[in-house]
Amino acid sequence: xxxxxxxAHPAPADTSLANRYGAKKRRLTPTAARTAVGIALAAGIxxxxxxxxxxxxxxxxxxxxxxxxxxxxxxxxxxxxTREPAKAVKxxxxxxxxxxxxxxxxxxxxxxxxxxxTPDGGRTVAQRVTVRTESASVSGVVDSCWIPGxxx
Length: 152
Fold this sequence. Notes:
This protein is 20% helix and 36% strand. By secondary structure, the protein is α+β, with helices and mostly antiparallel strands. It has a three-stranded antiparallel beta sheet with strand order 1-2-5, with no helix packed on it. The chain has a three-stranded antiparallel beta sheet with strand order 4-3-6, with no helix packed on it. The protein is elongated, with a radius of gyration of 32 Å.
């Protein structure tokens, strides 16, 4: 016997997984997947090209040559800078401790020079910079170099 409040045939319990957890996610078509991979690959190659040329866009390149520790409060960094001989350059040089923390920092002015008879026409100059440190350093590097007034 059924009561007036109870339906004669109860609705079947809907226990399918799709109703319980939602419909299956749609996968990308093979064409869409290839397109997405192609776009990601092109973006990656573009990023690598930008990173590899960003240092030379300003017309200034640098190369770390050597490093020595005079004592626990001084470090010497040797490096080369290549730029147009008539251009003045600034370089940020840093000394690092064993945990790669910066323990010394100095901005160095490199004046313009005259073109000379060297193979590169005086574009490359060698520099030795003494950097004061707050504790013992284990390495020294050039962080960046730029032409003053060149947007930096």
